[in-house]
Fold this sequence. Notes:
heterotrimer, A: alpha/beta, Rossmann fold, six-stranded mixed beta sheet, four-stranded antiparallel beta sheet, 11 helices, B: MetI-like fold, two-stranded antiparallel ribbon, 12 helices, 78% helix, flat
Amino acid sequence: MESTIVSSRNFNAYFGTNHVVKNVSMDIPKNNIIAVMGPSGCGKTTYLRCINRMHELIPGASVQGEMLLHDEDLYSLNPILVRLKIGMVFQRPNPFPNLSIYDNVIAGYKLNGFKLSKKERDEIVEHSLQKAALWNEVKDTLHKKGTFLSGGQQQRLCIARAIAMEPEVLLMDEPTSALDPISTSSIEELMHELKKNYTLVIVTHNMQQAARVSDKTAFFFLGELVEYNDTREMFINPKDSRTQNYITGRFS
Amino acid sequence: MERVSKIFSYGKIRTETAFKRTLVIIALVMVVITLGIFITLVVHAMPSIKALGFSFFWSRTWDPVSNVYGALPFLVGTLLTSFLALIISVPFSYAIAIYLGEYKPSGWLSGLLKNIVELVAAVPSVIYGFWALVVLVPIVRALEAKLGVATYGVGIFTSSLVLAVMIIPYAASLGRELIRMVPSALKEGAYSLGATRYEVLKHVILPYTKSGLFAGMLLSLGRALGETMAVTMVIGNTSIMPKSIFDPGNTMASVIANEFTEADRSVYLAALIELALVLFLVTVLVNILGKMIIKRFSNE
Amino acid sequence: MNRKNIHNQIKYRIARNKASEVVITIYSFLITIPLIAIIFYVLKTGLSKLSWQFLTNIPQPVGELGGGIANALVGSILIVLLATIIAVPFGILCGVYLSENKNAKLSYWSRLAVDVLQGTPSIVIGIVIYFWVVKPRGGFSAFSGSIALALMMLPIVIRSTEETLKLLPDTLKEAGLALGLPYHKVILKVIIPCGVSGILSGVMLSIARIAGETAPLLFTAFGNPYLTTNVLKPMQTLPLLIFNYATSPYDEWHDLAWGASLILLIWVLAMNLITKLITRRWKVQL
Lengths: 252, 300, 286
């Protein structure tokens, strides 16, 4: 049995009085890719943003229940500590427009005032960009602004920026929804590579993507976790009629 | 893992908390400063408010030597100069607004005009005053001679002319923004019915932007009411009630500028501060009203 | 209506359209006349005064040659600098609060306060600072003048900061926070640098505006015929010098005031120009 890294117990999230994540309990095993899918408004992104405590940044947002990282409640830790351990990649690529590609990669250290030697910095930048499969494309333009890259490259830069911090878990919120098909497939390939060192949680509304990349899939519907199983199993043999309806395209 | 523990420190958390608190305090201090201005004026105007009451506003004699303080000449002077300036400036500021907003939204000529308007706003008021004193006053004097009125040169009329130039940029740049906000669908609707540009302006653009243009006038008026230096230099500085627009006079701002450091009696000083209080309340009212109208306009 | 009538009507409407365009164009460019008249006059009378000694000497008594405006120039630079140092950090942070807490109750009142302060006549600010700083300290000082000018700068700096930061996407802030940056680092190292062109142009505009202010200095910095760099003493500034000498009856002093006007005008216009360049060059590509 794989070891669990993140798990939630009876977890609820709210926007004001709006109950958007309802009583979700799920275990996320280490070095796996977990796809979280469901129709829009089902609470999947909110659930993801609760894992690294980004949800609470929205005025009026609140949570209830347990979210554990290695049996330690994330909500008893300082959010900064949580976010250092759990990285995130967003729906739209968001490199820092005021920084170069190089500085974007080490932004987590640089902006935090963490001193690194030139050698260490160079190593981290090259290593992270290579892992993000961007190194060959940008190694000669490292000191140009990151915003000059294409959308797919920007997203891989954001992935490099997140993995430069060596997080234990990497959250991805529909990371390819703003990208073209070629960039999408290169990022999907990248996910397989990243799985060796990290645990990935990916929100997607694209069923094919969930089927292609993930080991396990969670299906959210109206804020509830309807079904959570091995991806293959879920797509071949869904247990819940709502999952079946979704997979067969009865509603989207 | 090791790196994380090195990056994270509780010192940072304390700084973060202190920073958030600083932001709140600063926003609070802004409120306190503004309230403080009002309270300071009220407190220091008290001796005059108590001694003179409402007669302050309609008594027409201001004679510090005999300890008599009536603010009516200054109220009249302020209103006359400001409204006259507004009336003079409106055709020009609206013309600029229409030109930049509708006729030529881009191109080098409108770029030039935009820069000119910005420069007009940038010239310091003391330079306007100085120039008016040396150049405009003789011209007005010649005009007064032709009209057969007393040839002071300085006075309400001269002040209004300078003020008019100074306030044009405010209504003009605001008006330009508003005219650009008119939905093109509305304009195209009118054009498709065969309307000329003049008719679109008159029947679509101006009615649509009416409230906003009025707000622009209010903001210009607020600016004119509070303007001190240029007016002080050319209004003639007399506390006698003006009988015509060519007479010299004083505005609330100019009488404060001239007499504040000379006020040797407590009631005298308090009377000047009461003028400042009135000026403050009126300009704030005019400004807030103008901004409210604009806000409502842009939200629609 | 017969064909000829319609034809005439259309002709009339086209003519009216043409006429209105001509009238509006003429009216809108008439503003150029006073501007050119003023700049021309200041150049004509001021240029002849300009010399090295004009900038380095202090004013001489009436009847003596070789007076300059060094005291006012130094005073203006010092007072404006001090005002900037006071107002800029305060203004930027207040702008940050307003853009970060758009719907907070405090933001509403703070915004209202900024609007009120912006509409407050400069002479009123002078009076208030007289009671807050000059009277408790027992005398006029450059420092009190700087505070008065700082109050005038604040609304411009606050508003330009708020408006600039409002336009930045929320994802930028989230990117920083998701990397484990503390809030103050996100603001100081991501948000403010990304809005730097808008914030800086607000700062420059506010400096240009206060550099020419006279009224708030009448009862604070007061003026001083001698050169001083002690900010706790009364100090001359360019606008104060222009005002005092322009309203004096002596021709020499008038000339001095014209020279000072030219310097002040160059300063203010240069600040406006720099603002334009900043907005163009430092714009962060989002």
